Amino acid sequence: MPKKIRELKQILRKYGFRERPGKGSHTNWTHPEYRGRVTIAGKDSSDAKPYLEKEVNQAIEEVNKKQKDG
To answer: Is domain 5-69 annotated with CATH 3.30.920.30?
Structure first.
């Protein structure tokens, strides 16, 4: 079962990403340890697309790796 958009946002907040507003339903998420940004589009109650879940997971893995390498 896919995660909801609101769940992805909660996960990003938990790992220290900051939300920046975008156009319409888009939000951009940045982190000092992550090169680039994660863009999430859609209503909070909508199901997240598989590619979006994958992008969030990759961003979190990269941040965790950089923090461990320190």
So the answer is: yes
